[in-house]
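== Polypeptide entry ==
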Amino acid sequence: MIWFWLAFFALVAFLLFLDLGVLHRKAKEQSLKSAALWTVGWMILGLSFSGVVYLMYENHWLGVQLKHAPASGSPGTFSAITYVSAYLLEQALSIDNIFVISLLFQSFRVPIKYQHRVLFWGIMGAIVFRVAMLGGGVWLASRFDWIFYVFGGYLAWQGAKLLKGGEDDEDEPNKSTVVRALRKVVKIVDGDHGGKFTVLVDGKRALTTVAVCLVSIELTDIVFALDSIPAVLSVSEEPFIVITSNIFAIMGLRSLYFVLAGAMAKFKYLKIALAILLIGIGVKMCLHNHVHISHVISLAAIAGIIGTGVLASLLAGKGEIEPPHDPAAADDPKPPAD
């Protein structure tokens, strides 16, 4: 199995290198059409991997076996449905992450042409954090059954909090405790420095606001992982399924951001849909020893709840999509016409 993991992460590294090192080497604004095509491409890749999952569990490649095999039916089909459910769930939860990233970019006034590079390195860090945290979550879930009640209660509480609008998204990220602490120990320079993370000032290294924004994005991803990891464990405890579905969903986060960031205000019912989804998952986790819910029903529920939220939002806002806001544009207004 170790050879598969080496090959899998080599594939991930190659795709990320191809994305930033070849196709997006120059810092420039990404068009909505390009972002949409990349989003579709990443989703096709992520969903297509369910075929690999099917073959591995159906044929027991590399000795892979389900810990909780179904009483009847194909283990490959069961595993593929489980993978798709975990992938769609992570994609749904990433929508809230996109909203916060958009606020961070606006607060730190990161020009849109540098945002793809910041998100790239943010994704790199997120992959490392997620693998470590998912491994720990799977280990806890496999040894302490009561942890499901803790995770379930936490998710239901988070969903209720989101439903009531009890979030602090409106706080100024660049005035947060983390940023203030960084300014005490590291010199931070404002302004556009070509998207660089560090610059030389009077012969000494200093962080740019782009670098501080990256640190903030990494920290917010750790916070969001506290929601997504218990949620994905409600779908499966298989490390192979949990980790691969999570990573494929995260890899498509950059392009999805450029599709949705400028239109988040129009998807006003998505927050409600996400809140209902978290509450439902929390209740399911708390009842896992008492009520069995098949993965087919879980998959249909996830797709139905998010689909309803998107459809209701589009009908309410007539589906008008605007490109992401460029925070740097506000500093360079066009002169009035004569």
About this structure: The chain has eleven helices and three strands. Residues 75-107 form the longest helix (33 residues).
